[in-house]
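Reviewers asked in the last cycle whether our approach scales beyond single polypeptides. To address this, we selected a multi-component target totalling 811 residues and predicted its structure end to end. The input consisted of the following lines:
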Amino acid sequence: MQINTSLIYAQRDALTPILKPEIRIPWKILCYDSYCEKRLSTIYRVGDLREMCITLHFNLDQNRERLYGVTAIYFIQPIQLSIEKLVEDFNRDLYSEVYINFSSPIENNLLEFMAKELSKISGAIQKIQKVYQHNLDFVALNHNFFNLENQIVNGLFSIILALKVQPLILFQKNSKVELIAKELIEKLKILEFNSDYPLLAIILPDRDIDLNTLIMHSNTYGALLHDTLNIKYNKVKLEDQVYDLSPQYDNLWHQACNMALPDAIDKINTELNDWTSQYQQVSQQNQEISSALSAIDLVPQMNQQKKMVDSHLNLANQLTQITKQKSLDKFYQLGQSILQNDLLAINDYPQSEDNQIESSKEIDKLRLLILMLLNNYNQQEFKKFEQLFQIKNEKYQNILSNFKQRVASNQNNKQQSVYKSLFAAITSKMPNSGKGLLKNFQNFLLQRGKKSAIVQMLENLFLNELKIDELQSILTMYDSRVKNISRLEFGLLSTIKGILVCFCDGACYNEYAELNDFAKSINKQIIYGGNKIYNAEEFLLQFQ
Amino acid sequence: MEIANYQYRDITQQFLSKVHVKLVAMKKEQPNQFLLTAKLAKEKVDTANERLQEFHTTSQSTGLFNDQDYKLNTILSQVKDDISQIHIHLNSLKTQLNNDLHQSIFDFVQQKAMKTSDSFKKLLQSHTLRIKQQEEKRNRLNGDRLIKRNFNQKYQKLNETDEETDHQTIQMFDQKQNEEKLVSMQKIESMLNEIAGVFQRVGVMVKLQETMIERIDKYTDEASLNVSKGRKELQESHKKISSNRGLILKVFLILFIFAFIYIVFIL
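The resulting structure, written as structure tokens, was:
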């Protein structure tokens, strides 16, 4: 049995009992809080809700009027605030019949609070048809990409339930994730897993093994969009227009998200050409009734297709402009060189005459400088670049000095560096196969020189028999089949059906793209995500 | 615990055990006329869909030797009635639209009805096509028969009664063929009528399609966008007002100075 259920389909299945409580109700309305809205909005469109006979949907914060004789479904997080809003709705006597769904198991005192408050309102209890609790603490951004919004333990637990898998939990010893892993394991112990469920290796690495990937410039469409325009729950806002990047409805996004930008643009152009030729074909068809009829049937579909291509044309256009203006491809190249420890020529950095453009690049400069610090880059070179860049933004200055201190203190103490991982010893031995390539090309189509730490770790774990003993001292594996810790053995890859990588201190589109490539090379599904999806700026702003 | 039981749980009893009021049966609110009509319309859509399904399965089992055209035609006319009734309901609903809920239910039923009439239209098309094909098949078989008959006449002496039945069969076939033709002509005609409706609906369909792929959080987004836009505008108008105020003060100041100079020095 393959892990055929993607996160999106798994989430859909898990949401169905909420949205279709009983068949006899001809239609109903749906109310949710902002937390649950995110679970719904990445999965469903208005049409899907209509399909399930939900005619109206509201955020609890929206203004709503009283609706007579209507069945309402509530989908809320079991927290005081949302329950208070629910009680307020009962106070206003908004709906006649109510189904209540909590996104996760509700604490006893909160259930008591709800019962007490609703008992005060006459007729409220009678309206309640059913109360359910679910395990829906994750947001599926793509079939293999998730956001846990800081609900790490509950989130991973929900994913395991939704995917219907037997988990093997691999976590880094003596790290921040150990506590999280142990809490998750405690929760898993009460479950009896069906032995036909496929095995999923859940890997919880410490973010410290790799900050580079979060900070460096990327070359993929998705990562560049996230860095420049900020993708929030599959939405991008550009000039007051919201672009919907849903992998289910937007095939182009599904395919191009992890492509290098030039390839993605080619893909968008091909799609546009396909559409144009289809359009011409339809419009040149003879005037027979049957072909006219089929042309009419094509209209909505083609309309939708056009919209999708148009929005990507807009986004890619904007992205190319920003890239050109800020020469992001150059930053990408410089970043790659730093990782390779190649000598940077200061002339490689294209300085613009325009001060405004230079100042818009401050974040990119900061990223480059921090990348140098993290990778112990030549001090003199670092100083040269620092002088050239002259970062003026106070926040950024703080971040930079913060990183300087951390790196310095790590070097003085000669302790295990916070930013140089436990894996450094292993990873540094890897040959740099892409070396030299970088100098010949000047754009995004460059091969990535060095594999990110997580990819190297997965390679060592699954593909390199010689490393397994070294990994034994770093990783602990909990096997849910025997409900106990077991020894790491080589050959795990053939028994598992998929891998899930969850970073508890931030994930990013850049790493997502890298893991996607790696997944293709080993022909297994890799699901990726974290407590939050950061772009470089958001991530760095935490270090003020 | 089994995973399936754990994923979601009914905690209604747990909740009710915490409620300490006596539950009295409530008088159920009577749904209003709009909701009742809409419900009727939706039920009609559902029955029409069921009938279309039935038509589909029946036509699948229909072969050259298992002719169920009569049954199929009955179903078709039933569906046609259903659809026209749905339209009556829809028209009456259209006059009663007075809030968002009504609008959304109306859209919902309208869309369902449109889908149903669309699949009805498609069924008609394929049905007509199938009738035509069967006719051709029959013609071919009949042709074979005729050749065979000629052959028989030429080379064999035939029993007269046999000849007669054969003749009768052919006549019956011809008659039936004509009927079929008539029916299929009628089908095409009704189809053409449908097309006229379809052309009018394209606009509505495109619009509906657009709503269908809207994000659920669109309005939440818009609300926040509007709030920030509103704030911006407020700030701008505040700026404008304050700059206007400055201008007015300056003008008055200058006027006062002139007045002062005029009064003190000139008068």
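Residues 414-442 of chain A have pLDDT under 50 and may be disordered. We regard this as preliminary and will revisit it once experimental data from Aim 1 are available.
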